[in-house]
Amino acid sequence: MSSLLPLKPTPQTASDRSLEPRLVDFEDESAEQIISAVSSTTARRILSQIYAEPTTASEIATELNSSVQNISYHLDRLQDADLVAVVETWYSEQGREMDVYAPTNSALVLFAGAERTSPSLKTALSRVFGSVGIVGAVSVLAHIRRSVPIPVSSPRAGASPVQQPDPIMWETLGTFATGPGGVVLGIGIFLILLFFVAWYWGTYRPARNHAHSA
Question: What is the spatial distance between Cα 192 and Cα 214, in angstroms, rounded to a whole number?
Answer without folding.
Answer: 31
